[in-house]
Amino acid sequence: MGRRLCAAGALLLLGLLVVLPLLRLISAVAAGGTVGLAAAFDGPDLAALINTGWTALAVTVLAVTAGAGTALLTERRRPPGRRWLRVAIIGPLLVPNYVAAIAWQRAYGRAGLTDQLLGLTLPGLEGPAGIVLVMAVGAVPLSYLIIAGGLTAAAEPDRERAARVSGARPLRAAAGITLPLLRPALVAAAVLSFASAASAFGVPQVLGSPAGFSTLATRIYRDLNFATDEAAFARVLVAACVLLVLALLAATAADASLGRGRDRPGGPAEPGSGAGSAWALLPVAFALLLLVGLPLLALVLEAVTRAAGLPPTPANWTLANFAAALQGNAFRALLNSLLLAALAASLSVAMGAVVVVTGGRAARAVGAAVTASFAIAGSALAVAVLLVYGEWLRDTLALILIAYLAKFWALGHRPLAGAADRLPADVFRAARASGAGPIDMLVSVVAPLFRPVLAAAWLLVFVTAVHEVTMSSLLYGPGSETLAVVVLNLQQLGDPTVTSALGVILTLLLALPAAALLGLRPARSAL
Amino acid sequence: MSALQCLALTVERGSTEVLRGIDLELAPGEVVGLLGVSGSGKSTLLGTIAGFVRPKAGEVWLQGRMVSSPRRSVAPERRALGVVFQGTALWPHMTAGETVAYPLRRQGVDRSRARAAALELLDKLGVGALSERRPAELSGGEQQRVAVARAFARGAAVHLLDEPTAHLDAAHRRRLLDVLAEIRAASGAAVLHATHDVEEAMSMADRLAVLRAGRIIQAGPPAEVYAQPTDVEVARLTGPASVLIAEVEAVGQGCAEVAIGSRRVPVAVGGAFTGRRAHLLVRPEWAQLGGQLPGTVRRAWYRGAHTDYRLATEGGEVEVRQPGPPVARAGENVTWRLDRAWPLPNGAD
């Protein structure tokens, strides 16, 4: 009985949150007919599509290469201080992408830190090169996590060793054995990198708009928020549809590539041969410093400097920017962000639990649909949600919440489903056989087993929701701004020092609790 | 020239020594069983010989060539070894045929010849019909045979087997050991066979080396290790064992008079011993029911071919083996006889 109810609930939610909006989007585009399509695809929009495609591809190549390299380093070479290296590689996840973009401007842009100190600026930072670089740096942590997971699960060291004792040189063994075994992880990392880069909005907005470089996501933003002509909305719909198709293409490619039989995990991996060399750490540490450390330092320095353009020396330090940052609508936006993120996290995890409890084939089908909806570009999803619910909920937090739930359901569901898959069913049967009733079992066995994973899933959604800017920038109205939207608007119009201060606040908001958590337990993500 | 030689091999993991001063030598064609509980260092020793782990001290020599020392390490692919890994370590993306052909291809054998040789080897192991299947489509026993075929494909003079039957049930285990013995004999290779299973070690090996906490505590022919273990742990590791603490008096070569409770009985004892009080190892088949010593049956285990009785005696608890089904129940008073015993050299308190 309970399962039926859960299944019905999950299907209803899926319909309301994902299927209905997407159908509405597609039908709206179809209603426009081929004329609308043609009109939408002259000149600038075609350029935006091409820009989206090639920057996403470039980001994918860079992120997967760097992720694989660092994963091989930490999981195979076993350098000293491996645990802290992992934390350092994953850490940038806690910096929102657009804040990272602003930080790069402050570090390497005109009048940035290196400009002031050394007279050096990074050419092309504002433009496609900078967009690709910053997005790639942001995509490395997830790609690293996925590939490192693949290395420990499928590519257990004994399989490489078997190749070596069979007479294969190290490179041969890597190409013939390790790489094919890693393929699922590499494909997953590539799809995730591509999907998130293709739908990325924050970074192209910050670094692309000064250079007049647009992607589909920034076009949608501009057309929806600023354009006044009638054709603009038609363009938005078509662009949203194209993003949808891009996501589907990526997902299909992944599906085709991963369709082959899954591997049964091997025995426990014997620890590798002693401690690796510390020298391998140098390039990684250097890259982390240059790509993450210095930009964040520049951001913090500007946040505490009295006025833009002053050298960031202690004489010019002040905390006034932080006070200024939280004045006006920023404070309300901060509360909005926290409320939205907490609601989205709690509801996504609850909805994920509903799917897991449903069990069986229905759960697998809904789970697949939920995962696929995560791949849909935020812009497309936001436009679709706006089409269905905009009439009643315009300018409310509820509108943003609906889009968040549609997008982040997967983040609430995946960790729970993974944990449920790994637990043998006998664990629960044993509880019942020991005399525990259903409620008793829930309290004494299920809850303790799932508590860490529930917490991890909740945090994952919370962090992602606080960072989120693509959907909220399209759906917000007066009174329903999120902190991310305020940062973005300030970045374009406001005082740079106050923007930096707000960026620091936004980062610390998540980095501090996360650092505390990371300090407590090994840096293994729930993903 | 020995096939394999470990000289004072010491390996550290972190700051703990997992192998300490291992000396081990395999003659060409010799099969040595490496017996030890899990965690005793078997896998580490094999890994060090194969070149996956670098020693802290000592050397490994393969066929007269030094391959491992703290300073020098020959790459695994240049050591000419065959290795069967504990978890099979098959490659999920390769068919059985491709897997077994892999080592041959690395030796420069051309594709068709390698495939033909692989097929022949798989045939010999009874899985020739499965050469187009991937590991996921093979049973545990079949997977292990493919792993064995891969190891032997290289025609190496030395093979390392790491718990090759660990994940198999009894019937598959016996069959795998049969084909292993056959293919080993045909190849004439020396084998270091690590296992925690004493029957497997004894039946396969010319010589046993017992590993405990990273040290070889006893080495010798299986029958010798079985009959004359150095201490009670080796005794228990190598088979069922009871230990009597008794007064012993030598009366001649290999013969002694043992006091059990109030009675003195003549018993055959292997080797020499000193001191009057001894820890006497008794294997179940060294004692029998019927005789002059009194005892009470605590429990009887019927094992098909024979029955084991645990007796409470004046000298302590003793296990006694008798052919046929049980003839006495728990609680029954019986008499028994001690034919043979081994005073444990390291049995003193």
TrEMBL record, chain A:
InterPro entries: MetI-like (IPR000515), MetI-like_sf (IPR035906). The chain crosses the membrane at residues 54-73, 85-107, 127-152, 233-258, 278-301, 338-359, 365-389, 497-520. It is found in: Cell inner membrane; Cell membrane. Keywords: Cell inner membrane, Cell membrane, Membrane, Transmembrane, Transmembrane helix, Transport. One of its GO terms (biological process) is transmembrane transport. GO terms for cellular component: plasma membrane. Its main location: membrane. Residues 49-254, 334-517 form the ABC transmembrane type-1 domain. It comes from the Bacteria. SUPFAM superfamilies: MetI-like (SSF161098). The keyword Glycoprotein does not apply. It is a multi-pass membrane protein. Belongs to the binding-protein-dependent transport system permease family. This is Iron ABC transporter permease.
From TrEMBL, chain B:
Keywords: ATP-binding, Cell membrane, Ion transport, Iron, Iron transport, Membrane, Nucleotide-binding, Transport. The keyword ATP-binding applies. Residues 4-238 form the ABC transporter domain. InterPro entries: AAA+_ATPase, ABC_SmlMolc_Importer, ABC_transporter-like_ATP-bd, ABC_transporter-like_CS, ABC_transpr_FbpC, Mo/tungstate-bd_C_term_dom, P-loop_NTPase, Transp-assoc_OB_typ2. PROSITE patterns: ABC_TRANSPORTER_1, ABC_TRANSPORTER_2. Gene3D superfamilies: P-loop containing nucleotide triphosphate hydrolases (3.40.50.300). Signal peptide: none annotated. One of its GO terms (cellular component) is ATP-binding cassette (ABC) transporter complex. The keyword Transport applies. It holds the Pfam family ABC_tran. GO terms for molecular function: ABC-type ferric iron transporter activity; ATP binding; ATP hydrolysis activity. This is ABC transporter ATP-binding protein.
